Amino acid sequence: MNVHSPISDSVDVNMTSKGQVLIPKAIRDRMGLQPGKPVVVAINDRDQVVVLTPEEARRHSEKPEERRARIHAAIEAVAGRYDFGGGTTDEIMRDLRGGDARP
Predict the structure, then answer these.
(1) Phi, psi at residue 40, to the nearest 5°?
(2) At residue 10, does pLDDT exceed 60?
């Protein structure tokens, strides 16, 4: 979830006297939130309250050098695994799409 993106779905809910807020089932399902599983409640750089899974929170809190290292490791994990025959980008895309290079 990109915490800076426009709001796509919203539901008005009330906060209880104990400060509890019910996250509607449709939103929990869409975001993959499960009963009994941890969530992270945080404030982003726009002073907005956001609810994230722990995995999303880690991604949003990683430093630029950590992100670069994670992306580099993912690229290295697949580097050299695929032989595209040395064609041009258009030829490779045509082959990947099943014969038609047009989008």
Answers:
(1) -115, 125
(2) yes
